[in-house]
Design a protein that fits this description.
This protein is mainly alpha-helical. The protein contains 30 helices and four strands. The longest helix has about 40 residues. The protein binds a DNA duplex (16 and 16 nucleotides) through helix 17 and helix 24. One of its GO terms (cellular component) is nucleus.
Length: about 725
DNA sequence: CCATCATTAAACAGAC
DNA sequence: AGTCTGTTTAATGATG
């Protein structure tokens, strides 16, 4: 302990220029007081100028902090009502708790909120004993659940009726118009489901669902483990009359996507949906965060954004088609992703993915709890991740703890945060749990390399998490730098832009800037996969993919079989395996065509992306495959794509346009051959993902990039 | 135990 | 002079 703190102070001393920022940041986090979501949200909100981030946030996604706040407000309202009743003698004096509970439950939330009293939460806590508060909270939760259920039910019915009407009318309409209408309905249903899911998960996260199974009315009893999107309609309908035709059809739509024209409505589970819940749940002036912006974004026919549209490209799984604007995207959506067997199958796959993720999340959380209980790590705290983590990146002692904790997972993997939790529990990705708990330290250790963690998809799916949670990403600096560079259309970034990407994408890197910036520079210089190119405006950094692949241990290349094998070996192998199976089942062409797996593009579909599987991500020039590129620096400048020189040697074998997203869907055989020649017996090892015969020795050694041959000469050890 | 490699720290130089 | 950028070395620790 003393050693840790000593080293901590020692290490923090050099970064004096960032000391103020770091300290203030930490003070914010801790001063905010355990409000994990709130702290994260405030962090995200305070960091202005992050175009992507704010854009995503402003789409109306309700943050956990908002939900929490909303529920707390409601709980307080109910508690106030309860106090009022007690004070005015409305409830019979001799009543026992159950009677009082009943009376309290009977108070509609909306009514309670319409009569706000002037009691502060602190006053409430002083007046009410903790058991009372808890009872009230539970009552309120149960009541709110009921109201929500009814609301959702009505909304679903209404939407379904609208949909049916629209479909009948659409028979006479042009197909596109119908598609647009369907899209709108689809969005609405989708948003409703998202809302339901968020509510349920939020409740579950607070332990309220499982806390009160008897009060939470039937359906919720079935989701202590996982809430699956496919289950939600059932869950919410379970209480109501099950025989209602509209509900049944909606339910079937949610579960069976195979056939009819109605199936396109209720399946997608894209997390970036703004739930339109404000008007019903908060009828009157309650100054909550459930603002009309969500309505505007969700109910309009032509919203300013679309959950399947982002960063100028279609987010449909495996598509990534570039669309200049929303209109074009809508057109593209209606043409390319119309209601057909393929789209239906893809949606079904997506459903299964989400479902598996949810299940996996529940299992992993449970496992983590058990592990922590076993290891006596905060056994008394059921929500170990609810608080913002303030790691000390400079402390190697912390890093040791973090790494060892991460490695203590049963499967021996330092779990990167899988995609399961990020959309719904932004502060708590599973698997990262123990690492983030003590974290601080570099949760890195080649996690992206050794375990083939798909950094691009990881980042894509846990984007919000890393952006808000002060958790070190489990990727190496090299991986992150490369990701930053590849995310840009030109695949080149200045050092400062790389810095900005780090701070924009990761809350963790908003502190201790001296440390990680130095590391970034160090990595840029050290790894020869990063090539510095003199530009007109200055120097930019690019990625030499071949070098990047070369420096990595070969895992697998191209072969879907290998991909599957590796996937099933990963920590979240189960869900990915099911994903694979689902893909195969739906004859999804993705895994069968190497070109579909893109490196830099945030492969929104696959939890695994090419790049981190060690597969060749870009078609690399076959010229000079055996010549060590380190011989002369000018060679580098030709291997990379520079703005001023769009068509250079690097692009020779690449038919794709020089600009645009990192989507060289032209990978493949030439590249593989090239690498195979260059790394004989390493890249292509068809039988097993990690061939035992492979040894990363000798020529794959850690090599320095001799930018200046003079300086290298005699210093090489 | 050794080789490899990621990370961190630090020194240094050049450009601005 | 100070800062930024870039290079290099060294130490440390993890991993296979």
């Amino acid at each position: 302990m003393m050693v840790e703190s000593a080293s901590e102070t020692i290490r923090s001393a050099p970064s004096s220029q960032n000391g103020v920022g770091s300290l203030s940041g930490q003070a914010d986090g801790s001063g905010g007081g355990s409000g994990g979501g709130a702290g994260a949200a405030s962090t995200a909100g305070s960091t202005a100028g992050r175009d992507v981030a704010t854009g995503a946030d402003s789409n109306g996604e309700m943050s956990p902090a908002e939900l929490l706040h909303f529920q707390q407000q409601q709980a307080l309202q109910v508690a106030r009502q309860f106090l009022l009743q007690q004070a005015s003698g409305l409830s019979s004096p001799g009543n026992n708790d159950s009677k009082q509970s009943a009376s309290a439950v009977q108070v509609p939330v909306s009514v309670a909120m319409m009569s706000p009293q002037m009691l502060t939460p602190q006053q409430m806590q002083q007046i009410l004993s903790p058991p009372q508060l808890q009872a009230l909270l539970q009552q309120q939760q149960a009541l709110m659940l009921q109201q929500l259920q009814e609301y959702y039910k009505k909304q679903q019915e209404q939407l379904h009726l609208q949909l049916l009407t629209q479909q009948q009318a659409g028979k006479q309409q042009p197909k596109e118009a119908l598609g647009n209408k369907q899209l709108a309905f689809q969005q609405q249903l989708l948003q409703m489901q998202q809302l339901q899911q968020q509510h349920l998960l939020n409740l579950q996260r607070q332990g309220l669902v499982s806390l009160q199974p008897s009060q939470a009315s039937g359906p919720l009893q079935s989701l202590p483990q996982a809430v699956c999107p496919t289950d939600l309609p059932q869950l919410w309908k379970g209480e109501g009359a099950p025989g209602q035709p509209a509900e049944d059809s909606v339910k079937q739509e949610g579960l069976d996507l195979t056939g009819t024209a109605t199936t396109a409505t209720s399946f997608t589970t894209t997390p970036k949906v703004s739930p339109p819940l404000s008007h019903h749940t908060l009828p009157n002036g309650q100054p909550t965060v459930l603002t009309p912006r969500k309505d505007s974004s969700s109910h309009e026919e032509t919203p300013s954004s679309h959950p399947l549209y982002g960063h100028g490209e279609c987010k449909w799984p495996g598509c990534e088609t570039l669309c200049e604007d929303l209109g074009q995207f809508i057109k593209h959506l209606n043409t390319e992703h119309a209601l057909d067997d393929r789209s239906t199958a893809q949606c079904r796959v997506q459903m299964q993915v989400v479902q598996q993720l949810e299940i996996q999340l529940a299992k992993e959380s449970e496992r983590l709890q058990a592990m922590m209980a076993h290891l006596h790590m905060r056994p008394s705290e059921p929500k170990p991740f609810s608080q913002p983590l303030n790691p000390v990146p400079g402390s190697s002692s912390f890093s040791k703890v973090a790494v060892s904790a991460a490695d203590s997972f049963p499967d021996g993997l330092a779990h990167p945060p899988t995609s399961a939790a990020a959309p719904v529990t932004p502060l708590r990705p599973p698997g990262l749990g123990s690492a983030s708990l003590h974290s601080g330290g570099p949760a890195r250790r080649r996690s992206s390399d050794k375990f083939c963690s798909p950094i691009s998809s990881e980042l894509a799916q846990n984007h919000e998490f890393y952006k808000n949670a002060d958790v070190r990403p489990p990727f190496t600096y090299a991986s992150l730098i490369r990701q930053a560079i590849l995310e840009t259309p030109d695949r080149q970034l200045t050092l400062n832009e790389i810095y900005n990407w780090f701070t924009r994408m990761f809350a963790y890197f908003r502190r201790n800037t001296a440390t990680w910036k130095n590391a970034v520079r160090h990595n840029l210089s050290l790894h020869k996969c990063f090539v510095r190119v003199e530009n007109v405006k200055g120097a930019v950094w690019t990625v030499d993919e071949r070098e990047y692949q070369k420096r990595r241990p070969p895992k697998m290349t191209g072969s879907p079989t290998l991909v599957k094998n590796m996937i099933s070996g990963l920590s979240y192998g189960a869900l990915n395996a099911s994903y694979q199976a689902a893909l195969a089942e739906s004859s999804f062409p993705l895994l069968n065509s190497p070109g579909m797996l893109n490196p830099g593009s945030t492969s929104s579909l696959l939890p695994l992306s090419h790049e981190d599987m060690g597969a060749p991500v870009e078609p690399l020039p076959s010229n000079g495959s055996s010549s060590p590129p380190r011989l002369s620096p000018p060679q580098y400048s030709h291997q990379v794509q520079v703005k001023e020189e769009p068509a250079e040697a690097e692009e020779d074998g690449r038919p794709g346009p020089p600009l645009g997203p990192p989507n060289p869907s032209t990978a493949g055989p030439p590249e593989d051959r090239d690498l195979e020649e260059e790394l004989p017996g390493e890249e292509l090892t068809p039988s097993c993902p990690l061939p035992p015969s492979w040894k990363p020795s000798l020529h794959l050694s850690y090599c320095f990039k001799p930018k200046f041959t003079v300086s290298v000469g005699g210093q090489d050890p």
